[in-house]
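no rush on this but wanted to send it before i forget. what follows is a protein written twice so to speak, once as letters and once as structure tokens for the fold. mainly i need to know what kind of three dimensional shape the backbone takes. thanks a lot i owe you, the record is right below.
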Amino acid sequence: MDIRSGVTLWELNDAAWRWPAMAPRPGRCDVAIIGAGVTGAFLAERLTREGHSVVVIDRRGAQRGATAASTALVLWETDQPLVLLEQRIGFEAAASVFRRGYEAVRGIRALGRALGAQCDWRDQESLYLAGDMLDGAALRDEAAIRACAGLESHWCDEAELYARADIVAAAALRAPGAAILNPVALTRALLAAAIGRGAVLCEGVGAFSYALDAAEVAVRLDDGGVLRAGSLVLATGYEMPPMVRGAGHTINSTWVLATAVTQAWRAPAVVWEASESYAYMRGAGGRVLIGGADEENISAAARDALMARKIDELRAKLAALAPAMADAPIELAWSGFFGVTRDSLPLIGAVPGAPRAYAAYGYGGNGVTFSAIAADVIARMLAGERDRDEAIFALDRFA
């Protein structure tokens, strides 16, 4: 099944890239990471920094799966607003998740600087628009509960919003601390750092099966080889192997269009809506990206068949939110799958019933942020430490 279709902006700018020759694949390592997208890259960088020997395996190739389809809005806010997440899991847990996201964005910024990563990082303001989940009045409540959690947000009305960002909505929350970046370049920089510390990247080979016991993990590869590891980490996007039970997890499709280079909209902000199925916008090198029009549980063929209709929907949405962009020509369009959970929080941690196996799934709209959090949580668990949020993110929390 194709994870995505269409040519993404990151591929357009990166078509000629190839990794240099890798060291031979060893027979054993401390940690085998399955998946070389942004999640696997964060894990590889963190674990090699902590002294683990790592092998990263990806049958499609590094950064060529769902990561290349990301619009990379780096948000500390989750798809579920804090005022609703509190109703699900309580204030302390919900506030911890939001604060963890804020810390993660700051950590990604610092890591990028330390690596010298050329990932086109841009600090941004988040503009969270009134929608069908939270109207203007409810956004005031959201700002208040965020303040109780120690997180800054500012309510603004329609006039202020338009004056600041040329965006049309009844109201919005403005929040500092967001960012945008190039997800493919970030993934490459993280993997390059890990490879520089001895990690081995194996592209074009997939994991056929896993044998796990109390002593080690044996990963049988589809080229006939076997990789033995002390631990296994699954970072395979929405593609869960059978050992991971997917309760509370579904696969959705999203569509994205990119305008041609324009100066009509230059707001230094990421824009998204307080809606169940929300539109999201960002700038990118003089272009504007807008995504959304999501659909639940459809096949790749059905997703691709909807491309023209969905792009028309996004074009109309762009004109409604940013009237200055109404006539902007469309240069690129793409679509892809992404995993979501019932509570909008990721699935991160030990795989129940699978000794020495860990996983990270279900990121919704927070792929980059939750990837960094996953690296932190799993690194702590591999070190025999408890993470403060591991119960909140546990894979079996919906069982």
User: Anything to note?
Assistant: The CA atoms of residues 12 and 332 lie 9 Å apart. Residues 91-115 form the longest helix (25 residues).
